[in-house]
């Protein structure tokens, strides 16, 4: 399950029909099973599709809002079946991905043979490879047009295109906008909090103070780290909030453009800005207990909640998805928790509790194989 998306603000679940094929019909199924002219295979696959779809619908009826149904729904009969299952219960959007790069196809097929349970019992790699290519050919024979968002050669990193047919409504429009701005070009995103501030030393939240002695040391170490890590990445950029502690932290970094985002400012503590948590507990006990009970939804008086922060980060996330070069984001704890959770697929309710310590760099490597993470602690 994916966490509630910063981009479209909906709960998302992924329903995997292929996993149910393995569970209900056995792990090993040859390419013949997926032929469009195999009535037994079609019937069995339709049964599994219905099970997976009903499971997804049940989840949505319990409060979920967006379901990603991962299956090969590439012909009108299958799509009509799904539309009938969805009638009166949810709206369907078909997303197609098309790749014409034979090298990428070959690489992905080989990864499939190596990692998929479909071929776990096939000792002959080349036989499995040929079987899966036959399966692809069977799918291609069945492909017909319909309502869709079609992504063509987006994985290549050389542009690609998106075709949209018969799509309308707010949510479908947001999905199209998101897909237009995403790609799988490998690149790192480095997340770090500003160096320790004077208010950090005093235990005060919010504020806009300068760096402490330790913070001054960290910004030098950060500049040295970034210079070495990104020395061959001339197109990289440094993003900060508009608060001076992030701007000061970024100042020794040279050779890269620096961009200030108001959306990267720390959570607005409202009337509690500049207070310590002990002072809030003593002078505003009801607010202290409300925050303790539900940090995610708690909103500081005249300030923000974590949900508010997530909402305002949408343009930042869209722009991060668009970037093809590395980005160093120097921001604040609540903001970086939300950004990290988006890329790491962490559940929404975990966001206020994700560990994002001072003087630590979290490197998220984006690429075709998913997201990988490294942490670098620059100071004890």
TrEMBL record:
Q: Which Pfam families match?
A: 6PF2K (PF01591), His_Phos_1 (PF00300)
The UniProt record lists the 6-phosphofructo-2-kinase domain at 27-186
Q: Does the keyword Nucleotide-binding apply?
A: yes
Q: For this UniProt entry, what's an example GO CC term?
A: cytosol
The UniProt entry's GO biological process terms, in alphabetical order, are: fructose 2,6-bisphosphate metabolic process; fructose metabolic process
The protein, known as: 6-phosphofructo-2-kinase domain-containing protein
Task: Detail which positions bind substrate.
Answer: 193-200, 245
List the molecular function annotations (GO) for this entry.
Answer: 6-phosphofructo-2-kinase activity; ATP binding; fructose-2,6-bisphosphate 2-phosphatase activity
Which organism was this protein described from? Clitoria ternatea (Butterfly pea)
> Which SMART domains does this one have?
PGAM (SM00855)
**Keywords (A to Z) from UniProt:** ATP-binding, Nucleotide-binding
């Amino acid at each position: 399950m994916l966490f509630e998306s910063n981009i479209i603000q909906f709960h998302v679940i992924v329903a995997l029909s292929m996993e149910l094929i393995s569970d209900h019909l056995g792990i090993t199924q040859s390419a013949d099973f997926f032929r469009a002219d195999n009535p037994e295979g079609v019937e069995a696959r339709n049964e599994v599709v219905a099970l997976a779809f009903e499971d997804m619908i049940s989840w949505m009826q319990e409060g979920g809002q967006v379901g990603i149904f991962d299956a090969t729904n590439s012909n009108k009969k299958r799509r009509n079946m799904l539309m009938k299952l969805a009638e009166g219960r949810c709206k369907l959007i078909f997303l197609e991905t098309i790749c014409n790069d034979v090298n990428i196809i070959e690489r992905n097929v080989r990864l499939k043979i190596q990692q998929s349970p479909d071929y776990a019992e096939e000792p002959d790699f080349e036989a499995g490879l040929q079987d899966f290519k036959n399966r692809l050919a069977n799918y291609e024979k069945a492909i017909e047009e319909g309502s869709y968002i079609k992504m063509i050669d987006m994985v290549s990193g050389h542009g690609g295109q998106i075709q949209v047919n018969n799509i309308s409504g707010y949510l479908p429009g947001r999905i199209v906008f998101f897909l237009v701005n995403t790609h799988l070009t490998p690149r790192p995103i480095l997340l770090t909090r500003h160096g320790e501030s004077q208010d950090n030393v005093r235990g005060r939240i919010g504020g806009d103070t300068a760096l402490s002695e330790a913070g001054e040391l960290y910004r030098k170490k950060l500049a040295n780290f970034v210079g070495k890590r990104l020395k061959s990445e001339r197109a990289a950029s440094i993003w900060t909030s508009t608060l001076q502690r992030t701007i000061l932290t970024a100042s020794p970094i040279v050779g890269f453009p620096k961009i200030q985002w108001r959306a990267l400012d720390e959570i607005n503590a409202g009337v509690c800005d500049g207070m310590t948590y002990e002072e809030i507990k003593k002078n505003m006990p009801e607010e202290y207990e409300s925050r303790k009970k539900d940090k995610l939804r708690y909103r500081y008086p005249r300030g923000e909640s974590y949900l508010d922060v997530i909402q305002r980060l949408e343009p930042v996330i869209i722009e991060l998805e668009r970037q093809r070069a590395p980005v160093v984001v120097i921001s604040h704890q609540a903001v970086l928790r939300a950004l990290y959770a988006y890329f790491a697929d962490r559940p929404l309710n975990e966001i206020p509790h994700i560990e994002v310590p001072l003087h630590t760099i979290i490197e998220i490597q984006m690429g075709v194989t998913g997201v990988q993470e490294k942490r670098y602690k620059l100071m004890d």
